[in-house]
Specification:
The structure is a homodimer of 454-residue chains.
Chain A (H helix, E strand, L loop, with lengths): L4 E2 L9 E3 L32 H8 L4 E3 L2 H7 L7 E3 L1 H7 L4 E6 L10 H13 L4 E6 L3 H13 L2 E7 H6 L1 H9 L3 E5 L5 H9 L7 H14 L3 E3 L6 H20 L6 E5 L4 H17 L4 E7 L4 H4 L1 E6 L8 E6 L21 H8 L4 E5 L1 H15 L7 H18 L4 E6 L7 H8 L10 H9 L8
Cofactor (chains A, B): pyridoxal 5'-phosphate
EC number (chains A, B): 4.2.1.20
Subunit structure (chains A, B): Tetramer of two alpha and two beta chains.
C-alpha cells in the first residue's frame, strides 16, 4: 500500500506560534491614524481587542506560546492530515510530487478556527462577555461561533443580508453553536438603522457589516470585536498549519520546492507559508511561496503598495498594503473569502521585498481544478481552496513541460460541503470569467488619496 | 493537556474484515424464494451482484482479507479518530467515561464509503461497467458515486423524487463525482415509466427507486446493483470501524462496558459493535451492545421476528428479520437513513438470541441530544447519528443516578453539514414526536403473510 497520508498525534500539535516579523529585515511600516496620518500605538486598538491580542499584533518575539487550553480545543481537529496527491499526479501525468495539507477537518470546515479559538480564549481571560464580527459567506462567522460557544461567550455575527438570505445553512450552523446572527444592515446598530432608513431594500455589504460589528464593540465595555484575517495576530495563529506541515514533510522524507495557498486577506497563506519561509531565513533554504488569488480581485498581482483603509467606509487605521482601493467592489464570485480589496501588512511587505510570489486564476480555471481534484483525490474543495489547486496544477504541468520533478505543497484550506450551489452553477455553465480591465483597476485606485510607497 | 483524541497511522488500517457469522452459535436462517418459499442459494443473487460479494454474503470464514487497493482508498479518511467526550461528560456531570468513534471524516461525510469502495472494487474486478442504486436523502448515493468515480465505473443513482427536489446539494455532490442522478420514478426504466403513467405527480418512494435500480441491473449484462445496508457483506465491510476502535480503546487504556450505534438497516451498528461482540465470544467479555432506533420506525423494539421482503414491492428474497412489515411507511423524520422497515438478518438473529439490545428515542429527544453534543463537543452530528448520542446520554445519566462509572462508546456515524435544514426546523419548533400506537403497528404487520419465527 502506498503511503498517502501523514498524520501526527495530538501530542505533536505545535506548542508555539511562529511570528515571522522577528525574522524580517524590512519590518512592516506602522499603521497610521486616519485623521492625523501619524503612526498609532497599540492603545488605539484597545476599544476593539483584548490587550493580549494587541500585544501579539505588535510583538517582535519570534515564538509565542500557545496556551494549553487553546491546544486542548485544537485537538478536536488538529493536527490535520497531510496527503500525497497520488490521484492528481497520475491524472496530470506529471513528474512533480504533489502534497496537500487539509484544513477542512475542523468542525467549521476550514482553517478559520485556528484563530477564532485563541481569540475567544484571550477575550475570555480578560472578562469579555460578548464578541461581535462580520461575515460574508459564513466561514469566519461559523468559526467564531464555534469558539465562543466553547468559552461561553455571547457571539453576535453581522452577516451580509444577501448571503443571509442565499446561504441559510451557514446561519443555522452558527445558531447551532449558540450565536446570534443578524442580517446586515440590521436595526441592532446606529450604522445599520441609518442605512436602512436611506435604503430599506439594500442587500448589504461586508463594509456595512464591519461597521455594525465595530460599533457594537466600541459602544459596550464588555464587548470586543474579532477579525478573521488580515491582522498580524490572525496570521500568527494560523502558523500551526505550516509548523505541522514541516514536520509531516520531514516524516515523508521530502521537502517542498514550492508552497502554495489561496489568498484573501492572507491568513491561510501565512499559516502554511510562514513556517517554510522560516526555513529560508534560518537554514538558507530556497522554498518558493506562491499566493494564489482570483483574477476578479487581484490586489497582489495588479494592485499597488500603498496606505489604505482596512474597511470600505474608512473607519480603520491606514495600513501599508497591496490594495485595489478600499472602495473596490469585486465580482460576486463563489469564493467569497477571497473578495477583499487589500492584503495584510506582513504579506504585503514580503511581496514588496520579493520574498514571496503571487499568481491569479480566472473563475472557470479554478472550478475546473476543483472538479479535477474532487474526482482524483475524493475531497470536494471549497471555492476558495480551488485557487491553490489551480496553482499547484499549473506548476505540476510546468514540471512536465520542463521534464523536471519538483515537490509541490498546497493548502486545501476548506471543504465545499456548504458550497454545492457553486458546483451546481459550474455544471450548469453559469460560471463566467471576471477579468478586470486596466481601466477598471485604475479607476478604483484613483479614489485613493495616499501616495504609493517606494 | 488532556488526551482527547486517539489517532492511528494509515499502517493501522485493518487488514481483514471480521465475519461475525463464524462465531454465532445460532446461524441466521436462510433466505427463501419469494414464490416457492424454499431456501435459495448464492446463484439466485448472481444477476444483481458480482460473485466475490456473493461469496462474502454467504461466507462462514471468520476473517476475510481486505484488498490492498481498497485499503489504499480507505487511507483517504481511515483510520478515523476516536474521541474522549470530555465536554459532554462535563455537561452531564456524570461519572461515566464517554468515547465516540467519528466516521464523518470520509469525503462523503459518513461511514457509507467503508462498503461502497469494496463493492465498486469487486465489481471492477469482474469487468462491470455500471453500478445502479437507490438513495433517499443521498448519503448512500454519494458514497457510491465517490467509490465508482475512483474505479472509473459509471454510477446511476435513483433518488426519491421528493428528496431530489428538496435536497439538491447531495445531488450536486454526486454529480461532482461524475454520477448520473435520476429523480425516481424516472422514464429511464419500465418500472418508472409505468408508475409515471399512472401518477405523473408522484413524489416517489425508496421502494420504487429500488425497483428502478434493480431493473437496470437485471436487464443489462455489464450492470450490477449495490445496496448500502442490511446485507451481510455490507455489515462485513463496516467492521473496520470497530476493529480500529478496539485498538484505540486499548491505546486509551480503557475498554467499553457499553457500545452504542444508531440503527437503520444495521450497517453502522454492525460496524462498531461486531468487533466488540467478538471480544465477548473470544475472550468471555461482557460488553453490552445497544442499537438505537427512532420511535417512528421501531422494528427492533416493537417489530416481530419474521420472514419478510427487503423491499416494499416484494421483489427480493424473503429474509428472516425483525420487521414492521414491508408496507410500513415511517413518518418523514430527518434521519432518513433510519427509515427502513426491517433489520438485517445477522443483527436480527443476535437480537433474538439476546446477544445485543435495542432502544428507541423520539424525534425531539434526539435533536436535543444532537444540539447538546454540538455545543459540548463541537461537531454537528447527522440526524441519524443523534440517536446514538441520545442513548449514550441516557446511559451516562443512569451512571450518575446509580453513582457508578461505566465506559460508554458510541458511533458518530456522520456529520450534519448537509442536514442543516433539520436543525433549522428544530430551532423553529417544527420537530414533532412520532410515536406509533400499538394499533398502527398491528395493522402494518397484519398484511404480512408469513408466520412469526419461534
Amino acid at each position: 500500500m502506498k503511503h498517502r497520508k501523514i498524520t501526527l498525534s495530538e501530542q505533536e500539535i505545535p506548542e508555539k506560534w511562529y511570528n515571522i516579523i522577528a525574522d524580517m529585515t524590512n519590518k512592516p511600516l506602522p499603521p497610521l491614524h486616519p485623521g492625523t496620518k501619524e503612526p498609532i500605538g497599540p492603545d488605539a486598538l484597545a476599544p476593539l481587542f483584548p490587550m493580549e491580542l494587541i500585544k501579539q499584533e505588535v510583538s517582535g518575539e519570534k515564538w509565542i506560546a500557545i496556551p494549553d487550553e487553546v491546544r486542548n480545543i485544537y485537538s478536536i481537529w488538529r493536527p490535520t492530515p497531510l496527503y500525497r496527491a497520488y490521484g492528481l499526479e497520475k491524472a496530470l501525468d506529471t513528474p512533480a510530487k504533489i502534497y496537500y495539507k487539509y484544513e477542512g477537518v475542523s468542525p467549521a470546515g476550514s482553517h478559520k478556527p485556528n484563530t477564532s479559538v485563541p481569540q475567544a480564549y484571550y477575550n475570555k481571560q480578560e472578562g469579555i462577555k460578548r464578541i461581535t464580527t462580520e461575515t460574508g459567506a459564513g466561514q469566519w462567522g461559523s468559526a467564531l461561533a464555534f469558539a465562543c460557544n466553547h468559552f461561553d461567550i455571547d457571539c453576535e455575527v453581522y452577516m451580509v443580508k444577501l448571503s443571509y438570505n442565499q446561504k441559510p445553512y451557514r446561519k443555522v450552523m452558527m445558531n447551532t453553536w449558540g450565536a446570534k446572527v443578524f442580517p446586515s444592515p440590521s436595526d441592532a446598530t446606529e450604522a445599520g438603522r441609518k442605512i436602512l432608513a436611506q435604503d430599506p431594500d439594500t442587500t448589504g455589504s461586508l463594509g456595512i457589516a464591519i461597521s455594525e460589528a465595530v460599533e457594537r464593540a466600541a459602544m459596550n465595555e464588555d464587548t470586543k470585536y474579532a477579525l478573521g484575517s488580515v491582522l498580524n495576530h490572525v496570521k500568527l495563529h494560523q502558523t500551526v498549519i505550516g509548523q505541522e506541515a514541516v514536520v509531516q514533510m520531514e516524516k515523508a522524507g521530502d521537502m517542498p520546492d514550492i508552497v502554495i495557498a489561496p489568498f484573501g486577506g492572507g491568513s491561510n497563506f501565512a499559516g502554511l507559508a510562514f513556517p517554510f519561509l522560516r526555513l529560508n531565513f534560518d537554514e538558507g533554504r530556497n522554498i518558493r511561496c506562491i499566493a494564489s488569488e482570483p483574477t476578479s480581485c487581484p490586489k497582489l498581482t495588479r494592485g499597488v503598495f500603498r496606505y489604505d483603509f482596512g474597511d470600505t467606509v474608512g473607519m480603520t487605521p491606514l495600513l501599508p498594503m497591496y490594495t485595489l482601493g478600499h472602495n473596490f467592489v469585486p465580482a460576486p464570485i463563489h469564493a467569497g473569502g477571497l473578495r477583499y480589496h487589500g492584503a495584510g501588512v506582513i504579506v504585503s511587505q514580503l511581496l514588496k521585498d520579493k520574498l514571496i510570489e503571487a499568481v491569479a486564476h480566472d473563475n472557470i480555471e479554478v472550478f475546473e481544478a476543483g472538479v479535477t481534484f474532487a474526482r482524483t483525490e475524493g475531497i470536494i474543495p471549497a471555492p476558495e481552496a480551488t485557487h491553490g489547486i489551480a496553482t499547484a496544477i499549473a506548476e505540476a504541468k510546468k514540471c512536465k513541460e520542463e521534464g523536471v520533478s519538483r515537490t509541490i505543497l498546497f493548502n486545501l484550506c476548506g471543504h465545499g460541503n456548504f458550497d454545492m450551489k457553486a458546483y451546481e452553477d459550474y455544471f450548469a455553465g453559469n460560471i463566467v470569467r471576471h477579468d478586470l480591465t486596466s481601466e477598471e483597476i485604475k479607476a478604483s485606485l484613483a479614489e485613493l488619496e495616499t501616495p504609493e510607497i517606494e
